[in-house]
Specification:
The chain folds into two domains: 27-132, Beta Barrel (OB fold (Dihydrolipoamide Acetyltransferase, E2P)), CATH 2.40.50; 137-257, Beta Barrel (OB fold (Dihydrolipoamide Acetyltransferase, E2P)). It has one helix at 2-19, and strands at residues 22-25, 30-47, 50-75, 78-93, 105-114, 123-132, 141-144, 150-162, 176-191, 206-216, 230-238, 248-257. By secondary structure, it is mainly beta. The strands form two sheets. The protein has a five-stranded mixed beta barrel. The protein has a five-stranded mixed β-barrel with strand order 8-9-10-12-11. The radius of gyration is 24 Å and the shape is globular.
Length: 258
């Protein structure tokens, strides 16, 4: 009897998954233009007769015209219904590198993602890169990955991130990691040098880089010197571990205060 109930339950779940299947119809990679804004909303829930109120803060991209996306219902891989939904703004996952661009008109490149809200169909734009519309991306200086030695200027700042074992929360027991970030004086593009003698399957081209994670191979600026603009010389490589907090990492060979 128990076995029969289990089989019926499995069939019910399978049917529910098929009927409730849905998808969003849009290109995976998309470019949108608008203004980045901070937003907040008040969420009120009644749990066990008790009212719970919380403030949810987020970052949104406000576009000139509402986005219209199509939501489809799929049954056995066949579309049986669809509806258009208009968004006056779209929530974004914004890498910390681009936080200073909040409040500015920007051009964002990324992909739409479904949120983890199981009770709704909210989506967000998972951003890869953001360009300041006041600065043309075609005017950005291009630097090359290792072994080419490059020179960059900007301001240094030290930030603490949660490290191993979970890389989630220092309060929950993760080891604190001190990371030095260079905010570039001017954004850059980073490319792989076209050299047949260099076999580079590790690095990847990046556009509109505004910050670098830096590692000093020898001495490093003092706390007082970090308040001033510095010029660093060294080599670049792409982030590839959980310890890397920016897209590009620089191994610094020498530096000077400007």
């Amino acid at each position: 009897m128990l076995k029969n109930y289990f089989i019926l339950f499995f069939l019910f779940v399978s049917l529910f998954i098929e009927v409730s299947g849905h998808c969003w119809e849009f290109e995976q990679n998309i470019i949108l233009e608008g203004v980045l804004r901070r937003a907040e909303r008040t969420i009120i829930k009644n749990l066990n007769g008790e009212k719970e109120t919380r403030i949810e803060r987020s970052i949104v991209l406000v576009t000139d015209k509402p986005l219209v996306l199509t939501h489809s219902v799929i049954l056995e891989k066949q579309q049986i219904a669809s509806t258009d939904i208009s968004y006056p703004h779209i929530g974004v996952y914004l890498p910390q590198e681009f936080i200073p661009l909040i409040g500015k008109r920007v051009r964002c490149s990324g992909a739409f993602r479904k949120t983890f809200d199981f009770h709704g169909d909210e989506i967000v734009l998972d951003i890869d890169v953001v360009f300041d519309c006041e600065q043309s991306s075609h005017q950005l200086k291009t630097l090359f990955y290792e072994p080419e030695e490059v020179e960059v200027s900007g301001l240094l700042d030290e930030t603490i991130y949660p490290g191993p074992p979970e890389y989630m929360s220092i309060e929950m027991g993760d080891h604190p990691e001190q990371v030095v970030i260079l905010t570039l004086k001017e954004p850059i593009n980073v490319e792989i040098k076209d050299d047949k003698e260099i076999d580079d399957n590790f690095n990847a081209p990046e556009k509109g880089v505004r910050e670098l994670q830096v590692v000093f191979s020898d001495s490093e600026p003092s706390t007082l010197q970090r308040k001033e603009e510095v010029t660093l010389k060294g080599t670049l490589y792409h982030a590839h571990t959980a310890h890397h907090r920016r897209r590009i990492v620089m191994m610094v060979k020498s530096w000077k205060v400007n």
